[in-house]
Amino acid sequence: MLLYIDPGTGSMLFTILIGVIGASIFSLRMFFIKFRFRLGGGSAKTDMNKIPVVIFSDNKRYWSIFEPICRELDERGIDTVYMTMSDDDKALESKFEHVKAEFIGKESRAFMKLNFLNASIVLSTTPGLEVYQWKKSKLADFYVHIPHAASEITLYRMFGIDYYDAVLLSGEYQAEDVRALEKLRELPEKELVKVGIPYMDEMAKRLQKEGSAERKDEKRTVLLAPSWGKSAILSVYGGKILDVLLNTGYNVIVRPHPQSFTSEKEMLDKLMAEYPESDRLQWNKDTDNFNVLSRSDILISDFSGVIFDFTLVYDKPVIYTDPDFDLSPYDAWWLDKPLWTASALPRIGQRLTDENMGDLKNVIDACLEDPKYAEGRRQVKAETWEHFGEGAVRTADYIEQKLNELTTKEEEK
Questions:
Q1: pLDDT, tens digit, for every residue of 322-344?
Q2: Would strands 99-103 and 166-169 be described as parallel, antiparallel, or unpaired?
Q3: Tally of domains in the chain
Q4: Which of 123, 265, 386, 404 has its CA 20 to 30 A from that of 198?
Q5: CB 300 within 8 A of CB 352
Q6: Strand partners, 224
Q7: Using CA atoms, how far apart are residues 283 and 385, in angstroms rounded to an integer?
Q8: pLDDT tens, 100-131?
Q9: Residue 262 is part of which domain span?
Q10: What is the pLDDT of residues 140-157, one digit of tens each?
């Protein structure tokens, strides 16, 4: 009879194993450090081989978040190791002098390496530190989190950022939410620094440099860019929304979420066969979404993060769905207040419902022509994108200042 271990028990056992191995390695390392210290007459350094800055990315799609930060760190001569769990990460092709990228394996292999890091600062956009397999290394001094979207910091799975030492933010409402969670959970206060949004700054610079993408005609272009899953637009409405969009007379671009081509392949294949490309309809699969965003007049989406990229960078309206979103697994559930996103969305566009679906052309026209949505975008941008254009510089400023602080403390010891 084969012994079966369920996933939850397996994860727990893995965590225990990591803890035992980690404690053993740490104890041995400390023993040898003390031994060398005594042999050397008290001159050995405990920070031997310590990496100044480690950046950890659990997926290649986050290179856009970190690239401008890496560029700034490199220009300052701050030695940094970029650790990625994707063997095809573009970071591995980067040519920085002081930032070296390396593939550290996937899942357990990667976390094993991370859990024994000898580093001064660890910067990551990955939530769940100390909650899942990723544990704080006893030889790493300071952990910093940077979000990967311009919205709530509380829409991570529960306890997502609780054990970071610092969080880099872009809006005051995010800082208020973090402090509220710390108070509820009786956690020590983290360092909260509003730096802006480095990856959005890069998008804005590119738009200013290259301008909007060329359009094939003067007709309005509607971009349908849903997320994936049972609550996403294509799963909920299927071909119905495509029929309505084509009946508007506008050009339509459909850009499914990349995960849909894997997890919802049968559904997508069926829709693409029923609605083939034409002079009015295009299915977009570009890796880089810059061109498709810049040549679209309005975006229709659901809970995809592209909503804020589109409306804040390109200064254009959106139409959004309001899925049945269960907050219970997320940090936001703990806070007795509505989501900031719930107040932001009505200011930047209109909600798509079963009732107004048949009148979608007029909804599109209203979003494009009513000046209140332009004013709403200005308000939302001010609330969630502080320090416009300064994100990478301010992030590097903070890391450099913190690195100097930690180095000074180590020298004083």
A1: 766 788 999 999 998 999 999 99
A2: unpaired
A3: 2
A4: 404
A5: yes
A6: 254, 300
A7: 31
A8: 999 999 999 999 999 999 999 999 999 999 99
A9: 213-384
A10: 999 999 999 899 999 999
Q: Which of 62, 340, 72, 52 is nearest to 195 (CA)?
A: 72
Residue 76, pLDDT score: 98
pLDDT tens across 227-240, in order?
888 888 999 999 99
Polymer length in residues for the chain: 413
59: helix, strand or coil: coil
Please tell me the chain's helix, strand, coil percentages from 3-state DSSP, rounded to the nearest 5: 45, 15, 40
Compute the C-alpha angle 142/147/153, nearest 5°.
105
What pTM, to 2 d.p., does this model score? 0.84
**Is residue 147 in a domain?**
yes
Rounded to an integer, what distance in angstroms lies between the CA atom of residue 339 and that of residue 401? 33
Average pLDDT of the residues in 162-183: 98
Q: How far is CA 235 from CA 229, 267, 271, in A?
A: 7, 8, 11
- Shared domain check, 145 and 290: no
Q: Which residues of 204-225 are buried (b: 16+ CB within 10 A; e: fewer)?
A: beebeeeeeeeeeeeebbbbbb
User: CATH code at 312?
Assistant: 3.40.50.2000
CA distance 115 to 100: 19
3-state SS, residue 160: coil
* Secondary structure letter of residue 213 according to DSSP: P
Is 37 inside any structural domain? Answer: no
- Judge whether 35 lies within some domain: no
Q: What is the CA 295 to chain-centroid distance, rounded?
A: 24
Enumerate residues 6+ apart whose C-beta is below 8 A from 78. 52, 53, 98, 396, 399, 400, 403
C-alpha 136 chain-centroid distance: 20
30 contacts 164 by C-beta, under 8 angstroms: no
DSSP state of 349: E
157 and 261 both lie in a single domain = no
